[in-house]
Input
Amino acid sequence: PGAPCHTNRLINEKSPYLLQHAHNPVDWYPWGQEAFEKAKRENKVIFLSVGYSTCHWCHVMEEESFKSKEIGEIMNKHFVCIKVDREERPDVDKVYMTFVQATSGGGGWPMSVWLTPDLKPFAGGTYFPPEDGFHRIGFRTVLLRIAEQWEENKDALLESSHRILEALRQTSEICVQGQESPPPSKEVMDTCFQQLSRSYDEDYGGFSQSPKFPTPVNLNFLFTYWALHRTTPEGARALQMALHTLKMMAHGGIHDHIGQGFHRYSTDQHWHVPHFEKMLYDQGQLAAVYSRAFQISGDEFFADVARDILLYVSRDLSDQVGGFYSAEDADSYPTTTSGEKREGAFCVWEAKELQALLPDPIEGAREGTTLGDVFMHHYGVKETGNVDPMQDPHQELKGKNVLIAQCSPELTAAKFGLEPGRLDALLQECRHRLATARAQRPRPHLDTKMLAAWNGLMISGFAQAGAALAEQGYVHRAAQAAAFLRTHLFDPTSGRLLRSCYQGKDKSVEQSAVPIQGFLEDYVFVIQALFDLYEASLEQSWLEWALHLQHMQDKLFWDPKGFAYFSNEAGDPSLLLRLKGDQDGAEPTANSVTVTNLLRAACYSGHMDWVEKAGQILAAFSERLQKIPIALPEMARATAIFHHTLKQVVICGDPQGEDTKEMLHCVHSVFSPNKVLMLTDGDSAGFLYRQLPFLASLERKDGKATAYLCSNFTCSLPVTSVQELRGMLSP
Output
């Protein structure tokens, strides 16, 4: 293509999403004072558009409306237009999404909101088609009507925006009521289990009909519920629900059987046809969940899926300096000569393609059987395509196949007269050939923005998998990423985290001219990652940094009046509300995770005021936890950990000694949700000894590696055998 016809201010930004819009005929501004002052000076409505670079419907609205010269002229004439990358600025996104959800009953991206010059919202929605249709008003019509209303009824709109903001301020407030204490964990856990059990899909797993999201927070809750109720029918059901869901997801089309990793969500009940984008936060959480499933069940199937996810992230989402990229797009060009991107084009197959790639006859199978026959049967491939037209409204997948493992290996092997062991090798050869062929297709867009919070989730995934699967390479990769964060997303002068950095043109790491400061979720997920990395590596410097960041989080975000943490710092006049997230969704909300972080921090430091803070958070969310804990399964899980008290598992031994390694392997192989691990090696000058003086009284017994189980810094009798240690770890 030739030089673009238009270039706007977004060309100076670092965000891949904002750069995607830098050549729209719309006079876009980034979020900031220049745009705000223009709106006030010219007394214009602000049109705020929020999205992210791998968002399918964001691409659609850009193609239909923001690339239209005619619509661009309407926008430029009547509005000051601002673009926001929701992944860079979750604070801005959350304020206006709260408004859109409250006024329209739904939400999503792209988010479209109209604001007064003082940033108060008065109208909003999500995706708008460009022109009026049977069921939806068109974007052009909305723009012209709002411009007309601003000219004729400005005072009414201003009054309306003021009322709306006050109502949002009252309804979104989360604070402790009177002398409220943390809710009782048994009731919260039982109610959450019952609510999940009622919404559970007995056939296909998951917790809705469609669309179906992976929701690691639900699975982590069920694992903890099982661990605390192992001998009961409810405990057995909790475990069955979690493991069945994980198996069905891994067999489904939401799992990329050729390129590894998981897509965003399934559009159907069967985990078959996904929305094809791949997000870093899903990979990080799912790697950890599948590792826990392996810990609990001993089934190598789950370990293999965890390895599959980490292979994908290492290969496709990793920066050469050590950080992790944010996402891969759903849309791509079907061929190198295509003029239009299609959703899923990189991942789907026609039957004739597979037959051409896999023509080899299989020796020893039923006569005439080819590799293609076996592969197509096993993965549900049909000559006419296997995608239900109901899941493909734009007919982008017509005649295509999304691979889904519909048969067990035993059934597929029996159908073609093969040994089950041989089938695995044949399918692996097929997948390898398809991966080679797929590599020739144009790749989807890669969002090379690196976010502290999502890197934290991915570090946890690598660290927990490394510990549970006894794979030191994963622990090293987690440490490399943590070192990247310390170099590129931490300011040692102020002691604060930064939100984001970016891959530069020469593959270097770049920062914005004015770096975005870290939000609560950045601190919470990085602190969790550093605790996980310490337990996997036993390198005390990660512990020291985690505790520093916890102190900084308290200083920047704690609400001393209503308790719990705000999502963003005080002092930004452009943010109309200071919110506290109240729902565990695709990612757990920060206050949910921070309860467990605070309990872990107290165990590693002896600062018991962190235990008090954890209780105050639970008290602030007490009403929600008792009525609808299914909205906060991670916080419900943390309620149980708070009431059961974390156990400190202390191993005294030489880190290089085989007896010490055996004990550490034992601890890592057992799923125990209410423990923290620490290793003491006799170095009284070490960080842990300075934090926890009681460790000096613990010593090796008979010169062997020795384990102690401590609660509130009071320790059990020492044990030196792995069998005794395993018994200690069971609830």
About this structure: Residues 8 and 701 are 71 Å apart (CA to CA). The first strand starts at residue 28 and ends at 30. DSSP finds 27 helices and 21 strands in the chain.
